[in-house]
Specification:
Layout lengths: L3 E2 L2 H23 L4 E7 L3 H16 L3 E7 L5 H13 L5 E4 L9 H7 L11 H8 L8 H14 L6 E5 L6 H10 L3 E5 L6 H6 L3 E4 L17 E4 L3 E4 L8 E4 L4 H5 L4 E2 L7 H19 L11
Parallel strand pairs: 1-11, 2-3, 2-4, 5-6, 5-7, 7-8, 8-11
Antiparallel strand pairs: 9-10
């Protein structure tokens, strides 16, 4: 391996510490405590673990944590009524509804019911439009985390060639918008892209968010490029025993690391940044709601 390892776990720890320091100052100077409300429907084990981690890290940052755990059979009307109440609650600055939702709930309707100013996931159509037009928006957490790591690595991204592999509304599209705002020359590649390998080889910044295990190999990577692997895929690991699995990204780490200048691992790369940026977004939403300056270095 010749590439520098971008340690997302350590970087996320730094972001959380900066958030905690800003929260402490808000409390001391203004008497304000940022509040994050998380809504979970059903008993999905992965979602429960994720929500528990969010609550723990919210409290550690000195924020108020409001958890609403509802049965899977909760009606759409009852969920929307809860969101209306959270929208009206001045102690709540950020609202997150854990996805996926049960099949009888319309996700788009639910996301659209959240006050855009409290939409710390950045999924509301108003925030999507604001980001696309270069205006102040709440930005999705995972792309925001990727942008923070890229800025930390390179400083000024202006003029760099960036390729984003994947066009999802959650990662690919907002990632491209953020890179474009930082004056990169941006291309979005996807399953229909022709000669995708050659396209990736021209990238100074290569962001993989396609959801295909180890799809991008070292021969797709420009020597010295920075590779951000957003993928989280579980594949069989017979070497660990029958039925065992392991986590891999969308990038074949060993071959790409031999060529790249810097690379994020999986796990331990982009993943830890998501909750850290959720806290940063909640802090940002709180500052905006109270007419205060936004936290430096924690927004897009």
């Amino acid at each position: 391996m010749s590439a520098d390892l971008i340690d997302g776990k350590a970087f996320a720890g730094q972001v959380r510490a900066r958030v905690a320091a800003q929260v402490a100052r808000l409390k001391e100077v203004h008497g304000i405590t940022p509040g994050l409300a998380v809504v979970l429907l059903g008993e999905d084990p992965a979602s429960q673990v994720y929500v528990r981690n969010k609550g723990k890290q919210t409290a550690e940052a000195g924020m108020a944590s409001f958890e609403h755990k509802l049965p899977a059979e909760t009606t759409e009307a009852d969920l929307l009524a809860l969101l209306d109440a959270l929208n009206a609650d001045s102690a709540v600055h950020g609202i997150l509804v854990q996805l996926p939702l049960p099949p009888h709930i319309d996700e788009n309707l639910v996301i659209g019911r959240i006050d855009p100013a409290k939409d710390v996931d950045g999924f509301h159509i108003s925030n999507v439009g604001l980001l696309a037009t270069g205006q102040k928006a709440m930005v999705p957490c995972t792309p925001l985390g990727c942008l923070m790591m890229l800025r930390d690595r390179h400083g000024d991204l202006s003029g760099m060639n960036a390729v984003v592999v994947g066009r999802s509304n959650i990662v690919g599209k907002p990632m491209a918008q953020l890179l474009l705002r930082d004056s990169c020359t941006v291309t979005i590649a996807h399953s229909r892209t022709r000669e995708i390998e050659a396209l990736c080889r021209g990238a100074d910044i290569l962001v993989a968010a396609v959801g295909r295990p180890e799809m991008i190999t070292g021969d797709w990577v420009k020597p010295g490029a920075t590779v951000i692997d957003v993928g989280i895929n579980r594949i069989p690991a017979p070497e660990k025993g029958e039925g065992k699995t392991r986590l891999v990204g969308d990038v074949h780490f060993e071959s790409a690391a031999a060529v790249a200048g810097a690379i994020t691992p999986v796990p331990g790369g982009v993943g830890p940044m998501t909750i850290a940026c959720l806290l940063a977004n909640t802090l940002t939403a709180c500052c905006r709601a109270n007419g205060l300056a936004e936290p430096a270095g924690l927004t897009a």
